[in-house]
Amino acid sequence: MRRSGTAILKGALFCAAALGAEAISAQAPLSPVGPTSAVYQPDIPPELHGLQTGADTVAKPITTLEEAIGLAYWTNPTLLAQRSTLRAADTYYPEARSAYGPQITLQGRHDYARDQIETAPGLRQHHQGFSSTAELIFSQTLLSFGRRAAAQGAALAQIALQRNQLRLTEAQTMLDVITAYVLVIRERAVLDIANENLDLLEKQYDNTRKRFSVHEVTSTDVQQVQTRLEFGRAQLLSAKGQLGASNARFLQYVGALPGTLVAPSLPQLPSGTLVDAFAQVELNSPLIQAAQAREKMSRAGIAAARAEQAPVLSLEGTGTYSGTNPYQNSLRTSQLRSALVLNVPLVDSGARRARIERAREDNDADWRLVDMAIREARQTAASAWDGYQAARLSLAHYEAAVTAAEQAYRGAVIQEKAGARTTLDVLDLARDLLNVRNSFVAAQASEYIARATLVAAMGGLEGPMLVPAIGHYNPDAHFRQQDGRGDIPVLTYVFVGLDDIGVDSLSSDRPMRDPAGDVRVSAQLP
Predict the structure, then answer these.
(1) How far is residue 127's CA from residue 116's CA, in Å, rounded to a whole number?
(2) CA–CA dist 188, 438 (Å, integer)
(3) 497 occurs within a structural domain
(4) How far is CA 275 from CA 21, 287, 290, 381, 454, in A?
(5) Residue 134 is part of which domain span?
(6) What does the alpha-carbon distance between residue 442 and residue 446 come to, in Å, rounded to a whole number?
(7) What is the arithmetic mean of pLDDT over 116-143?
(8) Which is more confidently placed, 44 or 31?
(9) What distance in Å separates the CA atoms of residue 314 and residue 145, rounded to the nearest whole number?
């Protein structure tokens, strides 16, 4: 039996991609694989990327992985929601910086007063009337001894955390897109195989019935073939259902239905050893960097708790314009008051000490979770590495098994006609051929998905890294819009310098404390 042209083409496409991974340089950086001669312009809603495209073009069928990645990168709702969350986090920074500037409040009041005063037994005086008051309140913290610096450090750490959460979401989205793309190709190939298997069984059934009519075989032979035929029809329906589910998953993650899909192109691996893969994980993994940002947030909590033990020096002032008494507005008075106010915490019965201790333990937990993030990222990389290597190396064996199974089946058909083989022998070999072909297709898909998972663990599965022509969402652009909104020229920078005195660095990464995190230990994995 010969495979159809469609099945052979799909197998060749998978094998070509797998063989391309063999020529990976040990020191090559992460790089995209795909068309570079022309700039690809994905169909993106204009409000998302400024491209003037019609709304009806967004839903056209996808034919390449580059198109799928480009459309998902700019339209996937989960990814867009995470970008909005990051933009919301950017506002923490100007909010924290605004604490370095003055606070000015204007308060206006219009009161009615009615009083009755007894000046002697049985003698009362009545006073009533309206009065208006305007008050301007000014407050400027001069020295907070680390309170404001801790808030600013926590804000920057929160932004860094959200940026890495965005990277994690983007990597998962791209992995979902690649998986959906590959699974559609796989299910289409499985459907083709099921169709070919059903054609084979139908021909076998017709031949067996004809031989039964001339008494060359028994009714048992006919029933055996019919059993496999009905099972083949059920398998075909199951394959159609799986393909429909894969199409729905494709629409969910990409935002359009799949068309005639060509061979997917994935990034080359940066190295040929697991140790080098671990080094890339430590350098680029958003999971590790998110854990480091969370540790910096809780470290800022320690600084804030410690600062509560220090005094606060403030400049306060008020300006009041009101009536001379609360019953009239005809006679007015104005007052100006200013003062340097020093608040020194003395005794709080251990509340501040408890907050410092709690902040330290919270930070220790986050510090430990950095080590756990390293373990998790390496475990993901190691599992993907093993899965990728196993699937890649197995492809040649599966292909050889398919060839052998085809030859065995064709030979058995000839031997059956000569009486050297039974009908059951032929059916068993047909089933073996079906199983081997399905396993081959599954191994091809597994190789792609494992390779993409490995690249994701190393921090390289991001839209612009896969397809540079789709453009890049730049989170720095929105942050620069927020930067400086809470600043007072000169004044903010002076107070920032004063407030940072005595505050430990909140921007440096803490060293690893987990002995198992040593790359030399991890490299001894079997």
Answers:
(1) 6
(2) 11
(3) yes
(4) 18, 18, 22, 10, 13
(5) 5-115+127-522
(6) 6
(7) 89
(8) 44
(9) 12
Q: Which residue is associated with the tokens 């390779």?
A: 451
Distances (CA, A) of 312 to 147, 383, 453, 496: 9, 54, 52, 15
Q: What is the pLDDT of residues 200-248, one digit of tens each?
A: 889 888 988 998 898 888 899 899 889 989 999 999 999 999 999 999 9
Q: How far apart are the first and last CA of the chain?
A: 41
Name the domain count of the chain: 1
Non-local (6+) Cβ contacts of 328 within 8 A are 129, 130, 131
396 found inside a domain: yes
Both tokens assigned to 265: 């192109």
- Quote the Cα angle for 367-371-374, to 5°: 135
Q: List pLDDT tens digits, range 239-276.
A: 999 999 999 999 999 999 999 999 887 666 656 788 88
Average pLDDT on 299-326 reads: 92
Residue 130 — φ and ψ, nearest 5°? -105, 145
**Tokens 């994935």 sit on residue:** 266
Highest mean pLDDT: which range of 41-50, 348-357, 494-503: 348-357
Closest CA to 258 of 266, 250, 267: 250
Q: Give SS3 for 350.
A: coil
Of 457, 481, 464, the C-alpha closest to 383 is 457
Domain membership flag for residue 153: yes
pLDDT greater than 80 at residue 148:
yes
For residue 243 the two structure tokens come to 């393909």
Helix-helix angle 77-90:65-75, to 10 degrees: 40
Give me the CATH number covering residue 340: 1.20.1600.10
Any domain includes 9: yes
Residue with tokens 């064709």: 410
CA distance 174 to 266: 11
In the DSSP assignment, the letter for residue 212 is H
Please spell the DSSP secondary structure of 479-526, one letter per residue: HHHHTTTT--TTHHHHHHHHHTTTPPPSSSPPPP--GGG-HHHHTT--
Core vs surface per residue 313-325: b (16+ CB within 10 A) or e: bbeeebeeebbee
**Measured CA angle at 50 (ends 46, 56), to 5 deg:** 20
The interaxial angle of helices 147-213 and 5-20, nearest 10 deg, is: 140
For residue 489, how many other CB atoms are within 10 A of its CB? 7
